[in-house]
Amino acid sequence: MDDRIDDHDIEVEGGLHAYDRKISGLLDDGSVGFQQPLLARNRKNTTSQIAIVGANTCPIESLDYEIFENDLFKQDWRSRKKIEILQYTILKWALAFLIGLATGLVGFLNNLAVENIAGFKLLLTGNLMLKEKYFQAFFAFAGCNLILATVAASLCAFIAPAAAGSGIPEVKAYLNGIDAYSILAPSTLFVKIFGSIFGVAAGFVVGKEGPMVHTGACIANLLGQGGSRKYKLTWKWLRFFKNDRDRRDLITCGAAAGVAAAFRAPVGGVLFALEEAASWWRSALLWRTFFTTAVVAVVLRSLIELCRSGKCGLFGKGGLIMFDVNSGPVLYSTPDLLAVVFLGVVGGVLGSLYNYLVDIVLRTYALINERGPGFKVMLVMAVSILSSCCAFGLPWLSQCTPCPIGSEGKCPSVGHSGIYKSFQCPPNHYNDLSSLLLNTNDDAIRSLFTSRSENEFQISTLAMFFVFVFCLGIITYGIAIPSGLFIPVILAGASYGRLVGRLLGPVSQLDVGLFSLLGAASFLGGTMRMTVSLCVILLELTNNLLMLPLVMLVLLISKTVADCFNKGVYDQIVTMKGLPYMEDHAEPYMRNLVAKDVVAGPLLSFSRVEKVGVIWQALRMTAHNGFPVIDEPPFTEASELCGIALRSHLLVLLQGKRFSKQKTTFGSQILRSCKARDYAKAGLGKGLKIEDLVISDEEMEMYVDLHPITNTSPYTVLETLSLAKAAILFRQLGLRHLCVVPKTPGRPPIVGILTRHDFMPEHVLGLYPHIDPLK
Question: What is the model's pLDDT at position 27?
């Protein structure tokens, strides 16, 4: 066995090769040297094992979605009784119910808190404006925003940096097989909930929908592993899913529940998980996610009914509303279809531009965020002051508009939350721009989608509001608070859609509210690049199936146009953060290479019966996660591949000290003295480490049989297999290790191991730059 490592072959803490850092060799203490992520240095990602999660740089590892079929696993399944299998099935559904219940409660309380905190702030500002105390009103408005923003930023910067941002890229990466301790930690859940409340209430151009997806995933992870030992939240009866495969299914349910709770769109939540979040899907998972989102819908409906009596303070319908769009018959002609096509093209262009600018801003903020928590908080405070100045200052540029006929008592809104803000206007007048800016984001969307009066908002107002939301949405996303992209994109799209509707009013039969909805759909399609799930979410939000053909058309056009320029916003963020995401297709240049071209040696392997000291030294000196196990004479006639042993299993085996002084097979003794649950994966990376083992010098000279913990049926491919086919196989099977075996006999039984890193474009093109299609 050779202890040398090659930088193309090393794996760190679980199977990801270095995806933003280079392996520089082994240090004296046995650790692996690496550089800081290049994202914050030269705006370019190369292959590394650290990535940006939220606003934090942390190590990442692969997940074991493959069923590890060793002797312990087979013995455990053979010994299971029918009642235990039934208990396992029932527990899956029970957990799906609990995930839906908890996510629904969190979604409702989130909206309740935001509406009351923001409502109090806006009422205070409005009352001071009525008394013509304009400076006091501004300082009260900006001061409340600054305090709320500072609290949200402090939570993110000092307690859980992984909670910053929407969390959807991180959840998407987890479901693709990438893990980091902080992605779904209980501290991340806590900060995600309260940071989102304070951040949205602070008047930032952000939404709580993206954070709700991350919140649902965190809740599912917490329940699926039986709670948190660190925070004394453990339930033994829930500690059943001690493998990544079952946890992946639960987190998919949690992500779907988050969308359902944010938009009150249960079907849209299922389709979002299918289209955007999950990398693997099957019919059984479809049933459970649908059941989970149905529970969310029932919980939200019940709680909203309780609030209709007025016991929830300023909470009206909040973000759980169904936006009202003109419910009359949707009639359209050829000019109207041309207008819809125009909206789709504009939405695609603006969406791709939005993604491009978001990418630039995120890379710029990385330079600030890497300086420490204090700089993160100061950046949030600066953006908060800018947002407050714009939201309070721009309405002074807008003219006062007479209240619509029939709106007596509602216009202007005095002493209560409403959509007609008087601001500095005389009685019976309202300031249309302040009605959008000095309001909650949900009320602003409701105002844009409705069509009480075609001239409710002036053209100049819609133009200014679009520029404000477009620019502030880009600037705000990336600061250290939980922030979603759905609401800023919907606001920007709705404003320019209504603007187009006003301009085309003389020649179009479509309502301006419908134009607003189609504008929102086009901008969503241009940024998110989703179609089916967005279409259903928008229809569930507006409760109007008559708009289905137009929404479908505008989504398809905007996505097609935007795809000509760049990738979707979440795909861009995943790449920029350094998360080694496996796409569902292979790159064309991979067809010019074969599997052996990207693996490197010499390979570190063990014999079936290996000396304890050799294993301990290998675990101490490397960070490999999987080790090939070779059957050698005298146990076999010739060397042959026995399988793969995981690092975590080797550590448990060494801790149990089941050794022998003789180099002989004794796997049956280990099977009788061990149980499969002893080798189950610990939650949140709390497994054994090599530093936890205490092995004497005498034990170092003893032997251990690795066969009971070896996966004797690993996936293998010939060394001459196309790298493109290997990538598709790796992705579709959800593998962590793919063994490459020789084509001709008489050679060592294994050539190398393909891991996620070996398929990354940065790694492949780094080895073979001449096949780069851009050169």
Answer: 31
Interior CA angle at 434 toward 433 and 435, to 5°? 90
- CATH number of the domain within which 684 lies: 3.10.580.10
3-state helix, strand, coil in the chain (%, to 5): 55, 10, 35
pLDDT of amino acid 683: 63
- In one letter, which amino acid is 586? A
Per-residue pLDDT band at 762 (split at 50, 70, 90): confident
Average pLDDT over residues 292-316: 84
Q: Collapse the DSSP code of 313 into the 3-class scheme (helix H, G, I; strand E, B; otherwise coil) and give the result.
A: coil
Residue linked to tokens 């490397």: 622
* Residues 139, 92: Cα–Cα separation, whole Å: 52
Helix 512-528 and helix 532-542, axial crossing angle in degrees, nearest 10: 150
Flag whether 549 is in a domain: no
Count of CB atoms situated within 10 Å of the CB of 132:
9
What does pTM read for this prediction?
A: 0.89
Amino acid at site 567: K
Q: Please give the Cα distance from 640 to 571 (Å, whole number).
A: 41
Domain that holds residue 247: 98-309
Task: Count Cβ neighbours within 10 Å for each residue of 727-747 and write b for 16 or more, e otherwise.
Answer: bbbbbeebbbbbbbbeeeeee
324 bridge partner residues: none
In a domain, residue 240? The reply is: yes
d(CA 630, CA 279): 33
Residue 465 belongs to some domain of the structure:
no
Q: Which of 288, 309, 330 is the last residue of a domain?
A: 309
Q: CA-CA distances (angstroms) from residue 602 to 9, 18, 605, 715, 751?
A: 9, 18, 9, 20, 9
Q: The domain that contains 132 carries what CATH number?
A: 1.10.3080.10
| Beta pairing partners, 51 | 58
* Largest Cα–Cα separation, the chain: 98
Q: Are 523 and 496 in contact (CB under 8 A)?
A: yes
Q: Please check whether residue 647 lies inside any domain of the structure.
A: yes
The residues, ordered by sequence, that sit 6+ positions from 726 with a Cβ below 8 Å of its Cβ are: 595, 717, 738, 754, 759
Give alpha helix (H) positions in 61-208.
Answer: 71-79, 82-130, 134-154, 168-176, 186-201
Split at pLDDT 50, 70, 90, the class of 106 is: very high
Share of the chain above pLDDT 90, in %: 49
609-611/703-705 β-pairing: antiparallel
Our count of domains for the chain comes to 2
> Two tokens at 687?
């497994």
Under DSSP, is residue 504 helix (H, G, I), strand (E, B) or coil? coil
CA distance 104 to 251: 15
Percent of the chain with pLDDT over 70: 86
